[in-house]
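Retro notes
What went well: the complex prediction finally ran end to end.
Inputs used:
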Amino acid sequence: MLGEGIIQGLVETARNFFGSYVDKDRLTTVQYPEERQPLPEAARVFPFLLYDGDDPVAGLRCVACQICEKECPPRCIHIDKSKDKKPDFVGKQQFYPAVFNIDVSVCMSCQICVEVCPFDAIRMDNAFELSTTDRFGGLLYTKRELAKSNEYYQQIHPTEAAECDERRAKELADAKAKAAAAAAAAKAAQAANPAAAPESATQASKNGAAAPAPSANGSATGAKGEPAKSETKVGQ
Amino acid sequence: MTTAASVDQVFVTLKHWLVFHTPTAFQTLVSILLTIIPIIVIFPALFAVTTVLERKGLGRIQNRYGPNRVGPFGFFQPLADAVKSLTKEDIVPRAADHVVHYLAPLVLVGAAFLAYAVLPIGRNMVAVNLDAGVLFFFAIGAATELAVFMAGWSSRNKYSLLGAMRAIAQMISYEIPLILSSVAVIMIAGTLSTSHIVENQARYTAGIAHWYAFTPWGLAGFVLYMIAATAETNRSPFDLPEGESEIIAGYFIEYSGFKFALFFLAEYLEMFAVSGLGITLFLGGWSSPVSFLTWIPSWIWFFAKLLIMILGFIWIRGTLPRLRMDQLMNFAWKFMLPMSLIVIFTAGVWRFLPHVIAGSAAVGLVVRWLVCALLVIGPYVLLARTLERGRRIEKRTYRYAE
Protein backbone atom coordinates (compact mmCIF):
# COMPACT_ATOMS: atom_id res chain seq x y z
CA MET A 1 0.00 0.00 0.00
CA LEU A 2 1.27 3.47 -0.86
CA GLY A 3 2.62 5.21 2.20
CA GLU A 4 3.19 2.09 4.26
CA GLY A 5 6.95 2.26 3.91
CA ILE A 6 6.94 5.89 4.98
CA ILE A 7 5.14 5.00 8.20
CA GLN A 8 7.62 2.20 8.87
CA GLY A 9 10.48 4.57 8.27
CA LEU A 10 9.01 7.19 10.57
CA VAL A 11 8.62 4.58 13.32
CA GLU A 12 12.22 3.50 12.87
CA THR A 13 13.60 7.03 13.09
CA ALA A 14 11.40 7.77 16.11
CA ARG A 15 12.79 4.67 17.77
CA ASN A 16 16.31 5.88 17.05
CA PHE A 17 15.50 9.34 18.36
CA PHE A 18 14.08 8.24 21.69
CA GLY A 19 16.44 5.27 21.96
CA SER A 20 19.45 7.57 21.82
CA TYR A 21 18.24 9.27 25.00
CA VAL A 22 17.56 6.00 26.82
CA ASP A 23 20.25 3.66 25.59
CA LYS A 24 23.76 5.13 25.83
CA ASP A 25 25.20 2.31 23.73
CA ARG A 26 23.46 3.74 20.69
CA LEU A 27 25.62 6.85 20.78
CA THR A 28 28.90 5.67 19.42
CA THR A 29 30.43 9.14 19.22
CA VAL A 30 33.58 9.57 21.31
CA GLN A 31 33.62 13.21 22.41
CA TYR A 32 37.24 13.59 21.54
CA PRO A 33 39.13 16.13 23.61
CA GLU A 34 37.38 14.99 26.79
CA GLU A 35 36.94 11.32 25.97
CA ARG A 36 39.63 9.34 24.27
CA GLN A 37 39.72 5.83 22.98
CA PRO A 38 42.81 3.93 24.11
CA LEU A 39 45.30 3.81 21.26
CA PRO A 40 46.17 0.37 19.93
CA GLU A 41 49.67 -0.70 20.89
CA ALA A 42 50.88 -0.58 17.31
CA ALA A 43 49.73 3.01 16.84
CA ARG A 44 52.49 5.11 15.36
CA VAL A 45 52.65 8.70 14.31
CA PHE A 46 56.07 10.25 14.40
CA PRO A 47 59.52 9.00 15.41
CA PHE A 48 61.35 9.88 18.59
CA LEU A 49 64.89 9.24 19.85
CA LEU A 50 65.45 6.91 22.74
CA TYR A 51 67.80 7.68 25.59
CA ASP A 52 68.94 5.56 28.52
CA GLY A 53 69.33 6.84 32.03
CA ASP A 54 68.31 10.28 33.21
CA ASP A 55 70.07 12.66 30.85
CA PRO A 56 68.23 13.03 27.52
CA VAL A 57 71.32 14.33 25.75
CA ALA A 58 74.09 12.21 27.25
CA GLY A 59 72.05 9.01 27.24
CA LEU A 60 70.99 9.26 23.60
CA ARG A 61 71.39 5.90 21.87
CA CYS A 62 71.86 7.45 18.44
CA VAL A 63 75.38 7.10 17.06
CA ALA A 64 74.82 9.42 14.09
CA CYS A 65 75.35 6.64 11.58
CA GLN A 66 72.94 8.55 9.30
CA ILE A 67 71.30 5.42 7.89
CA CYS A 68 67.86 6.77 8.74
CA GLU A 69 68.71 10.09 7.13
CA LYS A 70 69.61 8.29 3.91
CA GLU A 71 66.66 5.89 3.98
CA CYS A 72 63.98 8.44 4.86
CA PRO A 73 61.72 8.61 1.76
CA PRO A 74 60.53 12.19 2.23
CA ARG A 75 63.97 13.17 3.60
CA CYS A 76 62.71 14.83 6.74
CA ILE A 77 65.69 13.85 8.94
CA HIS A 78 68.76 16.02 9.22
CA ILE A 79 71.78 14.77 11.18
CA ASP A 80 75.13 16.46 11.85
CA LYS A 81 77.68 13.99 13.11
CA SER A 82 79.76 14.97 16.11
CA LYS A 83 83.52 15.35 15.84
CA ASP A 84 84.23 13.59 19.14
CA LYS A 85 83.03 10.28 20.44
CA LYS A 86 81.55 9.00 23.62
CA PRO A 87 81.04 5.49 24.93
CA ASP A 88 77.75 3.75 24.17
CA PHE A 89 75.88 1.39 26.49
CA VAL A 90 78.37 -1.42 26.08
CA GLY A 91 81.22 1.00 26.53
CA LYS A 92 82.27 1.22 22.89
CA GLN A 93 83.33 4.66 21.64
CA GLN A 94 80.74 6.04 19.21
CA PHE A 95 79.89 9.29 17.50
CA TYR A 96 76.74 11.06 18.57
CA PRO A 97 74.45 13.44 16.68
CA ALA A 98 75.48 17.05 17.19
CA VAL A 99 72.26 18.02 15.41
CA PHE A 100 69.29 15.72 14.90
CA ASN A 101 66.27 17.43 13.40
CA ILE A 102 63.04 15.95 12.05
CA ASP A 103 60.51 18.04 10.20
CA VAL A 104 57.03 17.01 11.40
CA SER A 105 55.33 18.53 8.42
CA VAL A 106 57.38 16.38 6.05
CA CYS A 107 57.47 13.11 7.99
CA MET A 108 54.98 10.58 6.66
CA SER A 109 55.22 8.18 9.63
CA CYS A 110 56.37 5.29 7.44
CA GLN A 111 58.54 3.78 10.18
CA ILE A 112 61.40 3.05 7.74
CA CYS A 113 63.84 4.94 9.96
CA VAL A 114 62.90 2.62 12.82
CA GLU A 115 63.34 -0.48 10.73
CA VAL A 116 66.78 0.46 9.42
CA CYS A 117 68.22 1.64 12.75
CA PRO A 118 70.82 -0.90 13.95
CA PHE A 119 71.14 0.75 17.36
CA ASP A 120 67.48 0.71 18.57
CA ALA A 121 67.85 4.47 18.81
CA ILE A 122 64.77 5.66 16.95
CA ARG A 123 61.24 4.45 17.57
CA MET A 124 57.71 5.45 16.63
CA ASP A 125 55.77 7.63 19.02
CA ASN A 126 51.98 7.66 19.36
CA ALA A 127 51.50 11.30 20.36
CA PHE A 128 49.36 12.55 17.49
CA GLU A 129 48.45 16.05 18.66
CA LEU A 130 51.35 17.76 16.92
CA SER A 131 49.64 20.90 15.72
CA THR A 132 51.37 24.17 16.44
CA THR A 133 50.82 27.85 15.86
CA ASP A 134 54.37 28.30 14.58
CA ARG A 135 54.60 26.66 11.21
CA PHE A 136 58.36 26.99 10.83
CA GLY A 137 60.13 26.47 14.14
CA GLY A 138 57.22 24.67 15.72
CA LEU A 139 57.19 21.92 13.13
CA LEU A 140 60.95 21.25 13.24
CA TYR A 141 61.76 18.98 16.16
CA THR A 142 65.31 19.13 17.51
CA LYS A 143 67.31 16.49 19.33
CA ARG A 144 66.12 17.74 22.69
CA GLU A 145 62.42 17.61 21.72
CA LEU A 146 62.82 14.22 20.09
CA ALA A 147 64.57 12.56 23.05
CA LYS A 148 62.24 10.33 25.07
CA SER A 149 63.20 7.93 27.84
CA ASN A 150 63.19 4.19 27.61
CA GLU A 151 60.47 4.15 30.29
CA TYR A 152 58.24 6.13 27.96
CA TYR A 153 58.93 3.62 25.21
CA GLN A 154 58.01 0.75 27.52
CA GLN A 155 54.82 2.58 28.34
CA ILE A 156 53.59 3.17 24.79
CA HIS A 157 54.83 -0.02 23.08
CA PRO A 158 55.28 -2.55 25.92
CA THR A 159 55.74 -5.68 23.81
CA GLU A 160 58.19 -4.15 21.38
CA ALA A 161 60.11 -2.42 24.20
CA ALA A 162 60.44 -5.64 26.22
CA GLU A 163 61.81 -7.43 23.19
CA CYS A 164 64.23 -4.57 22.52
CA ASP A 165 65.41 -4.43 26.15
CA GLU A 166 65.96 -8.15 26.19
CA ARG A 167 68.09 -8.00 23.06
CA ARG A 168 70.13 -5.12 24.43
CA ALA A 169 70.64 -6.88 27.74
CA LYS A 170 71.94 -9.89 25.82
CA GLU A 171 74.26 -7.70 23.76
CA LEU A 172 75.57 -6.11 26.94
CA ALA A 173 76.11 -9.50 28.54
CA ASP A 174 77.89 -10.73 25.39
CA ALA A 175 80.08 -7.65 25.32
CA LYS A 176 80.94 -8.10 28.99
CA ALA A 177 81.76 -11.75 28.46
CA LYS A 178 83.91 -10.83 25.46
CA ALA A 179 85.69 -8.12 27.46
CA ALA A 180 86.25 -10.55 30.29
CA ALA A 181 87.64 -13.11 27.83
CA ALA A 182 89.82 -10.45 26.21
CA ALA A 183 91.05 -9.33 29.63
CA ALA A 184 91.81 -12.92 30.57
CA ALA A 185 93.66 -13.43 27.27
CA ALA A 186 95.61 -10.20 27.78
CA LYS A 187 96.49 -11.25 31.31
CA ALA A 188 97.66 -14.61 30.01
CA ALA A 189 99.65 -12.90 27.28
CA GLN A 190 101.12 -10.50 29.85
CA ALA A 191 102.00 -13.43 32.01
CA ALA A 192 103.68 -15.02 29.00
CA ASN A 193 105.37 -11.82 27.82
CA PRO A 194 105.21 -9.04 30.41
CA ALA A 195 107.13 -6.50 28.26
CA ALA A 196 104.66 -6.47 25.30
CA ALA A 197 102.31 -3.45 25.02
CA PRO A 198 100.82 -3.05 28.47
CA GLU A 199 99.26 0.26 27.38
CA SER A 200 97.03 -1.13 24.63
CA ALA A 201 95.92 -4.14 26.70
CA THR A 202 94.60 -2.00 29.55
CA GLN A 203 92.90 0.26 27.02
CA ALA A 204 91.15 -2.69 25.42
CA SER A 205 89.88 -4.11 28.68
CA LYS A 206 88.64 -0.72 29.78
CA ASN A 207 86.59 -0.11 26.64
CA GLY A 208 85.45 -3.69 26.34
CA ALA A 209 85.90 -3.43 22.57
CA ALA A 210 87.24 -6.08 20.31
CA ALA A 211 89.85 -4.15 18.39
CA PRO A 212 92.21 -2.28 20.69
CA ALA A 213 94.07 -0.05 18.25
CA PRO A 214 91.22 1.96 16.58
CA SER A 215 89.40 2.47 19.84
CA ALA A 216 92.58 3.84 21.37
CA ASN A 217 92.78 6.26 18.45
CA GLY A 218 89.16 7.17 18.89
CA SER A 219 89.51 8.06 22.51
CA ALA A 220 92.59 10.09 21.68
CA THR A 221 90.76 12.21 19.09
CA GLY A 222 87.79 12.43 21.42
CA ALA A 223 89.88 13.95 24.12
CA LYS A 224 91.44 16.49 21.81
CA GLY A 225 88.42 17.02 19.49
CA GLU A 226 86.41 20.22 19.29
CA PRO A 227 83.41 20.55 21.61
CA ALA A 228 80.08 19.61 20.02
CA LYS A 229 78.55 22.37 18.02
CA SER A 230 75.65 24.11 19.63
CA GLU A 231 72.35 22.90 18.21
CA THR A 232 71.20 24.87 15.25
CA LYS A 233 67.96 24.47 13.40
CA VAL A 234 68.84 23.33 9.98
CA GLY A 235 66.55 22.27 7.21
CA GLN A 236 64.52 25.37 6.39
CA MET B 1 -12.56 41.61 29.96
CA THR B 2 -11.57 38.49 31.84
CA THR B 3 -7.96 37.80 32.75
CA ALA B 4 -7.58 35.11 30.08
CA ALA B 5 -8.96 37.41 27.42
CA SER B 6 -6.69 40.28 28.50
CA VAL B 7 -3.63 38.02 28.43
CA ASP B 8 -4.76 36.83 25.01
CA GLN B 9 -4.96 40.41 23.76
CA VAL B 10 -1.87 41.70 25.61
CA PHE B 11 0.13 42.47 22.45
CA VAL B 12 -2.83 44.06 20.71
CA THR B 13 -3.54 46.25 23.76
CA LEU B 14 0.13 47.16 24.07
CA LYS B 15 0.28 48.22 20.45
CA HIS B 16 -2.86 50.33 20.76
CA TRP B 17 -1.50 51.94 23.92
CA LEU B 18 1.82 52.76 22.24
CA VAL B 19 0.14 54.16 19.15
CA PHE B 20 -2.25 56.18 21.29
CA HIS B 21 0.67 57.82 23.09
CA THR B 22 2.52 58.93 19.98
CA PRO B 23 1.89 62.28 18.23
CA THR B 24 -0.94 62.10 15.73
CA ALA B 25 1.38 62.82 12.81
CA PHE B 26 3.39 59.63 13.47
CA GLN B 27 0.57 57.33 14.50
CA THR B 28 0.25 55.57 11.14
CA LEU B 29 3.99 55.07 10.85
CA VAL B 30 4.33 53.78 14.41
CA SER B 31 1.37 51.47 13.92
CA ILE B 32 2.95 50.01 10.77
CA LEU B 33 6.35 49.64 12.42
CA LEU B 34 4.82 47.96 15.47
CA THR B 35 3.21 45.43 13.15
CA ILE B 36 6.24 44.74 11.01
CA ILE B 37 9.06 44.72 13.56
CA PRO B 38 7.73 41.84 15.68
CA ILE B 39 7.40 39.73 12.53
CA ILE B 40 10.94 40.43 11.36
CA VAL B 41 12.27 39.75 14.85
CA ILE B 42 10.27 36.72 15.94
CA PHE B 43 10.47 34.58 12.84
CA PRO B 44 14.25 34.88 12.29
CA ALA B 45 14.61 34.09 16.01
CA LEU B 46 12.47 31.04 15.43
CA PHE B 47 14.76 30.23 12.50
CA ALA B 48 17.74 30.31 14.85
CA VAL B 49 16.01 27.99 17.31
CA THR B 50 14.92 25.70 14.50
CA THR B 51 18.43 25.26 13.13
CA VAL B 52 19.60 23.98 16.52
CA LEU B 53 16.54 21.79 17.01
CA GLU B 54 16.95 20.42 13.52
CA ARG B 55 20.62 19.62 13.89
CA LYS B 56 20.11 18.07 17.30
CA GLY B 57 17.02 16.17 16.20
CA LEU B 58 18.67 14.83 13.07
CA GLY B 59 21.65 13.87 15.17
CA ARG B 60 19.52 11.88 17.56
CA ILE B 61 17.69 10.23 14.69
CA GLN B 62 21.09 9.13 13.40
CA ASN B 63 22.27 8.19 16.89
CA ARG B 64 24.64 11.14 17.19
CA TYR B 65 24.77 13.96 19.72
CA GLY B 66 24.40 16.87 17.31
CA PRO B 67 25.86 20.25 18.22
CA ASN B 68 26.67 20.34 21.94
CA ARG B 69 29.66 22.66 22.27
CA VAL B 70 28.43 26.25 22.14
CA GLY B 71 26.57 27.18 25.31
CA PRO B 72 24.38 24.83 27.35
CA PHE B 73 23.58 21.75 25.23
CA GLY B 74 24.81 23.62 22.16
CA PHE B 75 21.85 26.00 22.13
CA PHE B 76 24.03 29.02 21.31
CA GLN B 77 25.14 27.38 18.07
CA PRO B 78 23.16 29.89 15.92
CA LEU B 79 25.26 32.72 17.41
CA ALA B 80 28.43 30.95 16.32
CA ASP B 81 26.89 30.31 12.90
CA ALA B 82 25.91 33.95 12.60
CA VAL B 83 29.41 35.14 13.48
CA LYS B 84 30.84 32.69 11.00
CA SER B 85 28.57 33.66 8.12
CA LEU B 86 29.04 37.37 8.80
CA THR B 87 32.82 37.16 8.85
CA LYS B 88 33.19 34.96 5.78
CA GLU B 89 34.35 36.45 2.54
CA ASP B 90 31.55 37.39 0.18
CA ILE B 91 32.63 35.99 -3.16
CA VAL B 92 30.95 37.04 -6.39
CA PRO B 93 32.03 35.13 -9.52
CA ARG B 94 33.70 37.33 -12.10
CA ALA B 95 31.30 36.18 -14.82
CA ALA B 96 28.22 36.64 -12.66
CA ASP B 97 25.56 39.23 -13.33
CA HIS B 98 26.44 41.33 -10.31
CA VAL B 99 23.21 43.21 -9.85
CA VAL B 100 20.95 40.18 -10.15
CA HIS B 101 23.35 38.11 -8.10
CA TYR B 102 23.17 40.70 -5.36
CA LEU B 103 19.39 41.10 -5.56
CA ALA B 104 18.38 37.43 -5.58
CA PRO B 105 18.78 36.70 -1.85
CA LEU B 106 17.12 40.00 -0.96
CA VAL B 107 14.13 39.31 -3.19
CA LEU B 108 13.86 35.82 -1.73
CA VAL B 109 13.91 37.01 1.88
CA GLY B 110 11.58 39.88 1.04
CA ALA B 111 9.03 37.56 -0.55
CA ALA B 112 9.31 35.17 2.37
CA PHE B 113 8.63 37.98 4.85
CA LEU B 114 5.70 39.36 2.83
CA ALA B 115 3.87 36.06 3.21
CA TYR B 116 3.58 36.71 6.95
CA ALA B 117 1.45 39.76 6.26
CA VAL B 118 -1.72 37.68 6.05
CA LEU B 119 -0.97 35.05 8.70
CA PRO B 120 -3.11 35.44 11.81
CA ILE B 121 -0.69 34.54 14.60
CA GLY B 122 -3.31 35.19 17.29
CA ARG B 123 -6.77 36.56 17.83
CA ASN B 124 -6.84 40.02 16.17
CA MET B 125 -3.14 39.59 15.43
CA VAL B 126 -2.78 39.74 11.67
CA ALA B 127 -0.61 42.32 9.97
CA VAL B 128 -2.97 43.01 7.07
CA ASN B 129 -6.47 41.60 7.19
CA LEU B 130 -6.87 41.21 3.44
CA ASP B 131 -10.12 39.93 2.01
CA ALA B 132 -8.07 37.90 -0.47
CA GLY B 133 -5.46 36.82 2.07
CA VAL B 134 -5.00 33.28 0.81
CA LEU B 135 -4.66 34.52 -2.76
CA PHE B 136 -2.08 37.08 -1.63
CA PHE B 137 -0.15 34.36 0.18
CA PHE B 138 0.08 32.12 -2.88
CA ALA B 139 0.94 35.03 -5.15
CA ILE B 140 3.81 36.03 -2.89
CA GLY B 141 4.84 32.38 -2.56
CA ALA B 142 5.16 32.23 -6.35
CA ALA B 143 7.48 35.25 -6.25
CA THR B 144 10.10 33.16 -4.48
CA GLU B 145 10.45 31.15 -7.71
CA LEU B 146 11.58 34.31 -9.44
CA ALA B 147 14.26 34.88 -6.80
CA VAL B 148 15.43 31.29 -7.09
CA PHE B 149 15.80 31.61 -10.82
CA MET B 150 17.53 34.97 -10.44
CA ALA B 151 20.08 33.28 -8.19
CA GLY B 152 20.56 30.31 -10.49
CA TRP B 153 20.81 32.35 -13.67
CA SER B 154 22.98 35.20 -12.45
CA SER B 155 25.64 32.94 -10.94
CA ARG B 156 26.68 31.78 -14.41
CA ASN B 157 27.35 28.30 -13.23
CA LYS B 158 25.90 25.22 -14.87
CA TYR B 159 25.10 23.58 -11.54
CA SER B 160 23.32 26.59 -10.16
CA LEU B 161 21.33 26.88 -13.40
CA LEU B 162 20.43 23.20 -13.25
CA GLY B 163 19.41 23.61 -9.64
CA ALA B 164 17.32 26.64 -10.48
CA MET B 165 15.58 24.84 -13.34
CA ARG B 166 14.87 21.89 -11.10
CA ALA B 167 13.54 24.24 -8.47
CA ILE B 168 11.25 26.00 -10.93
CA ALA B 169 9.93 22.72 -12.33
CA GLN B 170 9.32 21.38 -8.86
CA MET B 171 7.77 24.52 -7.41
CA ILE B 172 5.39 25.03 -10.32
CA SER B 173 4.34 21.37 -10.27
CA TYR B 174 3.67 21.35 -6.57
CA GLU B 175 2.00 24.73 -6.49
CA ILE B 176 -1.02 23.17 -8.19
CA PRO B 177 -1.80 20.52 -5.51
CA LEU B 178 -0.86 23.10 -2.86
CA ILE B 179 -3.48 25.55 -4.09
CA LEU B 180 -6.06 22.91 -5.02
CA SER B 181 -5.94 21.34 -1.57
CA SER B 182 -6.58 24.73 -0.01
CA VAL B 183 -9.41 25.41 -2.47
CA ALA B 184 -11.51 22.87 -0.55
CA VAL B 185 -11.13 24.95 2.61
CA ILE B 186 -11.95 28.14 0.75
CA MET B 187 -15.09 26.51 -0.65
CA ILE B 188 -16.32 25.40 2.76
CA ALA B 189 -15.34 28.61 4.55
CA GLY B 190 -16.72 30.74 1.73
CA THR B 191 -13.97 33.30 2.16
CA LEU B 192 -10.39 34.01 1.11
CA SER B 193 -9.66 35.98 4.26
CA THR B 194 -7.33 34.10 6.59
CA SER B 195 -8.85 35.69 9.70
CA HIS B 196 -12.36 34.60 8.70
CA ILE B 197 -11.17 31.08 7.92
CA VAL B 198 -9.74 30.82 11.43
CA GLU B 199 -12.83 32.33 13.02
CA ASN B 200 -14.97 29.77 11.20
CA GLN B 201 -12.91 27.01 12.80
CA ALA B 202 -12.89 28.55 16.28
CA ARG B 203 -16.42 27.35 17.02
CA TYR B 204 -17.11 24.39 19.23
CA THR B 205 -19.67 21.58 19.13
CA ALA B 206 -19.72 19.26 22.15
CA GLY B 207 -16.41 20.79 23.24
CA ILE B 208 -14.57 19.97 20.02
CA ALA B 209 -13.48 22.64 17.58
CA HIS B 210 -14.67 22.83 13.99
CA TRP B 211 -11.17 22.41 12.61
CA TYR B 212 -11.21 21.37 9.00
CA ALA B 213 -8.58 18.76 9.79
CA PHE B 214 -11.25 16.97 11.84
CA THR B 215 -13.23 16.17 8.69
CA PRO B 216 -12.23 13.41 6.23
CA TRP B 217 -11.69 15.80 3.33
CA GLY B 218 -9.89 18.24 5.61
CA LEU B 219 -7.53 15.58 6.92
CA ALA B 220 -6.75 14.37 3.41
CA GLY B 221 -6.41 17.96 2.25
CA PHE B 222 -4.08 18.72 5.14
CA VAL B 223 -1.82 15.78 4.30
CA LEU B 224 -1.78 16.77 0.63
CA TYR B 225 -1.14 20.38 1.58
CA MET B 226 1.80 19.48 3.81
CA ILE B 227 3.36 17.22 1.16
CA ALA B 228 3.01 19.98 -1.41
CA ALA B 229 4.34 22.50 1.11
CA THR B 230 7.40 20.35 1.73
CA ALA B 231 8.08 20.29 -1.99
CA GLU B 232 7.31 23.98 -2.33
CA THR B 233 9.91 24.94 0.27
CA ASN B 234 12.52 22.54 -1.14
CA ARG B 235 12.68 20.58 2.07
CA SER B 236 13.84 17.00 2.25
CA PRO B 237 12.74 14.60 0.69
CA PHE B 238 11.99 17.07 -2.10
CA ASP B 239 15.33 18.90 -1.86
CA LEU B 240 16.43 18.09 -5.39
CA PRO B 241 17.17 21.73 -6.27
CA GLU B 242 19.96 21.69 -3.72
CA GLY B 243 21.01 18.06 -3.94
CA GLU B 244 24.58 18.11 -2.69
CA SER B 245 25.53 14.85 -4.32
CA GLU B 246 24.34 15.71 -7.83
CA ILE B 247 24.51 19.47 -8.27
CA ILE B 248 26.59 20.49 -5.23
CA ALA B 249 24.16 22.98 -3.72
CA GLY B 250 21.80 23.89 -6.51
CA TYR B 251 20.96 27.50 -7.17
CA PHE B 252 23.03 28.96 -4.34
CA ILE B 253 26.40 27.37 -5.09
CA GLU B 254 27.98 30.68 -5.92
CA TYR B 255 26.82 32.37 -2.76
CA SER B 256 28.97 32.59 0.32
CA GLY B 257 28.99 34.35 3.63
CA PHE B 258 25.94 36.32 4.59
CA LYS B 259 24.17 35.97 1.25
CA PHE B 260 24.24 32.22 1.73
CA ALA B 261 22.85 32.70 5.21
CA LEU B 262 20.05 34.79 3.68
CA PHE B 263 19.12 31.90 1.39
CA PHE B 264 19.05 29.66 4.38
CA LEU B 265 16.94 32.14 6.30
CA ALA B 266 14.52 32.51 3.40
CA GLU B 267 14.15 28.76 3.09
CA TYR B 268 13.19 28.43 6.73
CA LEU B 269 10.97 31.51 6.64
CA GLU B 270 9.09 29.98 3.73
CA MET B 271 8.77 26.76 5.66
CA PHE B 272 7.31 28.59 8.67
CA ALA B 273 5.00 30.65 6.47
CA VAL B 274 3.67 27.69 4.56
CA SER B 275 3.25 25.73 7.81
CA GLY B 276 1.50 28.78 9.26
CA LEU B 277 -0.92 28.82 6.36
CA GLY B 278 -1.47 25.08 6.79
CA ILE B 279 -2.31 25.75 10.43
CA THR B 280 -4.61 28.58 9.43
CA LEU B 281 -6.44 26.57 6.80
CA PHE B 282 -6.73 23.18 8.44
CA LEU B 283 -5.67 23.28 12.08
CA GLY B 284 -7.82 26.16 13.26
CA GLY B 285 -5.10 28.81 13.30
CA TRP B 286 -4.89 30.26 16.78
CA SER B 287 -7.90 28.36 18.15
CA SER B 288 -7.63 25.54 20.67
CA PRO B 289 -8.80 22.06 19.64
CA VAL B 290 -11.08 21.62 22.67
CA SER B 291 -13.25 24.26 24.31
CA PHE B 292 -11.93 23.80 27.86
CA LEU B 293 -8.43 24.89 26.74
CA THR B 294 -9.56 28.21 25.27
CA TRP B 295 -8.07 30.05 28.26
CA ILE B 296 -4.59 29.44 26.83
CA PRO B 297 -3.67 32.58 24.81
CA SER B 298 -4.27 32.29 21.09
CA TRP B 299 -0.70 33.18 20.12
CA ILE B 300 0.60 30.33 22.27
CA TRP B 301 -1.66 27.96 20.37
CA PHE B 302 -0.39 29.25 17.03
CA PHE B 303 3.28 28.92 17.95
CA ALA B 304 2.77 25.53 19.61
CA LYS B 305 1.18 24.25 16.43
CA LEU B 306 3.95 25.82 14.37
CA LEU B 307 6.58 24.13 16.53
CA ILE B 308 4.87 20.77 16.10
CA MET B 309 4.81 21.29 12.34
CA ILE B 310 8.53 22.15 12.39
CA LEU B 311 9.27 19.01 14.38
CA GLY B 312 7.26 17.08 11.79
CA PHE B 313 9.39 18.58 9.02
CA ILE B 314 12.55 17.60 10.89
CA TRP B 315 11.27 14.11 11.48
CA ILE B 316 10.41 13.68 7.79
CA ARG B 317 13.82 15.03 6.83
CA GLY B 318 15.53 12.53 9.07
CA THR B 319 13.51 9.66 7.63
CA LEU B 320 13.08 9.90 3.89
CA PRO B 321 15.76 9.82 1.20
CA ARG B 322 15.74 12.33 -1.63
CA LEU B 323 13.42 11.58 -4.56
CA ARG B 324 14.55 11.23 -8.14
CA MET B 325 13.39 13.85 -10.62
CA ASP B 326 11.01 11.45 -12.41
CA GLN B 327 9.60 10.20 -9.10
CA LEU B 328 9.03 13.78 -8.07
CA MET B 329 7.10 14.64 -11.23
CA ASN B 330 5.16 11.37 -11.26
CA PHE B 331 4.13 11.94 -7.69
CA ALA B 332 2.98 15.48 -8.40
CA TRP B 333 0.97 14.79 -11.53
CA LYS B 334 -0.22 11.23 -11.04
CA PHE B 335 -0.98 11.24 -7.33
CA MET B 336 -1.15 14.70 -5.80
CA LEU B 337 -3.23 16.32 -8.54
CA PRO B 338 -6.00 13.64 -8.74
CA MET B 339 -6.13 13.36 -4.98
CA SER B 340 -6.53 17.09 -4.49
CA LEU B 341 -9.36 17.12 -7.07
CA ILE B 342 -11.01 14.30 -5.14
CA VAL B 343 -10.62 16.29 -1.94
CA ILE B 344 -12.38 19.24 -3.56
CA PHE B 345 -15.20 16.97 -4.68
CA THR B 346 -15.48 15.41 -1.21
CA ALA B 347 -15.62 18.84 0.38
CA GLY B 348 -18.58 19.62 -1.89
CA VAL B 349 -20.29 16.37 -0.87
CA TRP B 350 -19.66 17.20 2.80
CA ARG B 351 -21.27 20.61 2.30
CA PHE B 352 -24.38 19.43 0.48
CA LEU B 353 -25.19 16.18 2.33
CA PRO B 354 -28.09 16.76 4.74
CA HIS B 355 -26.68 17.87 8.11
CA VAL B 356 -29.58 16.40 10.07
CA ILE B 357 -30.57 12.80 9.33
CA ALA B 358 -33.48 11.07 11.12
CA GLY B 359 -33.99 14.17 13.25
CA SER B 360 -30.52 13.95 14.81
CA ALA B 361 -27.47 16.09 14.04
CA ALA B 362 -25.18 13.37 15.52
CA VAL B 363 -26.47 10.71 13.11
CA GLY B 364 -26.12 13.21 10.29
CA LEU B 365 -22.51 13.87 11.25
CA VAL B 366 -21.65 10.17 11.44
CA VAL B 367 -23.24 9.47 8.05
CA ARG B 368 -21.49 12.44 6.46
CA TRP B 369 -18.21 11.36 8.01
CA LEU B 370 -18.50 7.80 6.73
CA VAL B 371 -19.56 8.81 3.23
CA CYS B 372 -16.79 11.36 2.89
CA ALA B 373 -14.17 9.03 4.38
CA LEU B 374 -15.14 6.41 1.80
CA LEU B 375 -14.97 9.02 -0.94
CA VAL B 376 -11.38 9.81 0.04
CA ILE B 377 -10.08 6.36 1.00
CA GLY B 378 -11.62 4.52 -1.97
CA PRO B 379 -9.89 6.61 -4.65
CA TYR B 380 -6.68 6.61 -2.59
CA VAL B 381 -6.58 2.81 -2.54
CA LEU B 382 -7.44 2.58 -6.23
CA LEU B 383 -4.85 5.20 -7.16
CA ALA B 384 -2.18 3.56 -5.02
CA ARG B 385 -2.90 0.15 -6.56
CA THR B 386 -2.77 1.58 -10.08
CA LEU B 387 0.49 3.37 -9.45
CA GLU B 388 2.09 0.31 -7.94
CA ARG B 389 0.88 -2.06 -10.68
CA GLY B 390 3.58 -3.44 -12.90
CA ARG B 391 6.25 -2.11 -10.59
CA ARG B 392 7.86 -4.95 -8.73
CA ILE B 393 9.85 -3.84 -5.75
CA GLU B 394 12.49 -6.45 -5.13
CA LYS B 395 15.42 -6.64 -2.85
CA ARG B 396 18.31 -5.23 -4.79
CA THR B 397 21.24 -7.54 -5.23
CA TYR B 398 24.69 -6.22 -5.87
CA ARG B 399 27.13 -8.04 -8.09
CA TYR B 400 30.36 -6.67 -6.76
CA ALA B 401 29.51 -5.16 -3.42
CA GLU B 402 28.67 -7.17 -0.27
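What we learned: Residues 3-352 of chain B form one domain.
What to try next: split runs per interface for comparison.
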